[in-house]
Amino acid sequence: MNIIKIADSLECFAEKLGRCVSWFCPLIVLLMTAIVVLRYGFSFGSIAMQEIVLYFHSAIFLLGAGYTLKHNEHVRVDVFYHRFSVVTKAWVSILGFFLLLLPFMICVFYLALPFVTDSWQILEGSSDAGGLQFVYIFKTLILGFCITLLAQGVAEVLRATAQIMKGNR
Known about the structure:
This protein is 78% helix and 0% strand. It contains six helices and no strands. Part of the tripartite ATP-independent periplasmic (TRAP) transport system.
C-alpha cells in the first residue's frame, strides 16, 4: 500500500473525529445557557449538567488534537520554519515527531494508563452528589488524545517522507 494512501486513511480518521467532536461546541453553548437560566431564573442547579459541559469541553480538546494538527492549527514556534524549503520543512516535521511528539505521547499514555485502568476497575463516578457516574469514560479521553495525536503524527511523517522522496528526484 502506498504511503500516501496510509496517510490519507489516518487523516480521514482525524478529520471525521474532529468534525464529530466539533458538534459539542453548540451543545456546550446550549447547556451553559440552560444552566445559567435554571440557576438564576429558577434557583435550580444541576451538577450533572455542569459535569457534562466539562466532559464535552475536554472531548473537544483531547479528541480534536489530531484534527488540529492535520489542519496545521496547532501552536508552532515559527521563527525560521516559514523560510525553509519544502524538503527542509519535511525533515523538521519528521524530527519533531520522533524527538518531541512521539516521546511525549508515549510518556502521557504510559503515565495515564494506570490512572485510567484504576478508574475502570472501580467504575469511578463523580464525587459530587448528583454528578455523573461515568468518570472512568471521561478519563479514557486522555488515552484517546494520545492515540489520535499519534495517528495524525504518523500521517504527517508519511507525507513528509513522500515529500523528501519526491524532492530528492
